[in-house]
Amino acid sequence: MPPFVLRSPEVLLSVPTPADIDRIAVVCTDPAIAEWTTVPSPYTRADAETFVTGMVVDGWARETMFTWAVRAPGRPDGTVLGMMAIGLIPGGPGDAHAGEIGFWTAPDARGRGLTTAAGRLAADWALDPSGLALERLQWRGFEGNWASRRVAWKLGFRYEGLLRRHGVRNGTVCDDWIASLLPEDPREASEPWPQEAPTS
């Protein structure tokens, strides 16, 4: 499947290109991205190059991982403000009819609703019969990643529980949260926002 653009009045999604490598390399050194995602840490320019020219290209070619750079509306080659991906889950219900959403946001783009807008575009495409036609789209986050969980909540993902010792965070086994979105679910928060644990 050749890469394509998704757009709304709030945001534009287009495939990251070699011109984005330096920006991605800088953004992915952010401590929050290192703490809450699975990107390599410490992150180098070589990691960004491998991601853009290898993982992204291969994912689209194999139709197993669909990755977009999040940009402001307008130019498909604008500054990278985040990353959004839909990956297929092997052995999911109905054969390749389950997927997972993943994302990160650059520090200078947080708090503007861009990730939620980008997630809505990607989720709608993944669940639409004319898109991937998935029967289930899931979100997972390391326990304690309230920023990511809030995005999933705004998109209508329904919290399903805690996966004990399911994730690996900075080389340490940890618990994951999991939530799901089905084609018939409303694309808006449909359950109360959980009480965040106090920070020490």
Short description:
This protein is of the alpha+beta class and 200 residues long. The protein is built from five helices and eight strands; from the N terminus they run ββαααβββαβαββ. Helices cover 27% and strands 28% of the residues.
Oligomer: single chain
Nearest-integer average pLDDT: 93
Gross morphology is globular
Instruction: Please tell me the total number of domains.
Output: 1
The beta-strand count equals 8
Radius of gyration: 16 Å
Alpha-carbon distance between the two ends:
47 Å
Runs in which pLDDT lies below 50 for 5 or more consecutive residues are none
Largest beta-sheet details: 8 strands, mixed
Class based on secondary structure composition and strand pairing: alpha+beta
CATH-defined superfamily:
Gcn5-related N-acetyltransferase (GNAT)
CATH-defined fold name: Aminopeptidase
N-to-C order of helices and strands? EEHHHEEEHEHEE
Mind telling me the CATH class? Alpha Beta
Helix content: 25-40%
Beta-strand content estimate: 25-35%
